[in-house]
Amino acid sequence: MTNNHKQIIALIAERNRTIISDDDPILILNTLFEYAVEQLDNKNQAQQHQLNQHIESILARLEHSMDNSLINWSDSIDKKAELLIRVGLEENRDQIAVAKKKFFADLESQIANQQVITSAAAEKIQKAAKLNYMVGAFLSVAVAVVCIFALFLKIRGG
Fold first, then answer.
1. What integer is the mean pLDDT of 62-77?
2. What tens digit of pLDDT does each residue of 83-119 get?
3. pTM assigned to the model
4. DSSP 99
5. What's the angle, vertex CA 57, arms to CA 56 and CA 62, rounded to 5?
6. pLDDT-derived band of residue 42, with 50, 70 and 90 as boundaries?
7. Chain-centre distance for alpha carbon 4
8. pLDDT of amino acid 144
9. How far apart are the first and last CA of the chain?
10. How far is Cα 76 from Cα 107, in angstroms, rounded to an integer?
């Protein structure tokens, strides 16, 4: 008999002025409750691990996407730089100024779009994590209530 069971027997004896045996259903229900809580904790840990893996996968895909975007931007920058050099700094200042404005406006737009995508992905990940924690908490409370109710019915009936 575990120390926990001895404590339960002592508590019942103290409060109800009765003694229960080692094979009493109350101890069985307590053991079942402890087992259910342990299983729920294991399931929560597994779900947390799965969620962490999913988040890591999403972040890896996002990083890969951003790396590809940076490569494309780099190629684009090289092409535009060559164009600017060919235009000639002294002869076509107005055209260079317009090209610069367009280049930086395009770059700002691309960066803004990437930030929107990143923010949306982070928000979805955050919502999924919150939902997972809420479900786990709800299940924990539900199991506890059912076990306590079963214990109450057993005590009242037996």
1. 80
2. 767 766 556 677 777 888 888 888 888 888 888 778 8
3. 0.37
4. H
5. 95
6. very high
7. 34
8. 83
9. 22
10. 10
Number of H helices and E strands in the chain, helices first, is 3, 0
SS3 2: coil
Distance CA 29, CA 65 (A): 53
Handedness of CA 37, 39, 41, 43 (dihedral sign): negative
Measured distance CA(7)–CA(102) in Å, rounded? 77
**Inter-residue contact 13 to 19 (CB < 8 Å):** yes
State the Cα–Cα distance between residues 55 and 61, nearest whole angstrom. 10
Chain Cα centroid distance, residue 40: 17
Report the pLDDT value the prediction gives residue 87, as an integer from 0 to 100: 65
Rounded to 5 degrees, what angle do the CA atoms 10, 157, 22 make?
35
Exposed, middle or buried, 27 (CB in 10 Å: 0-12/13-18/19+)? Answer: buried
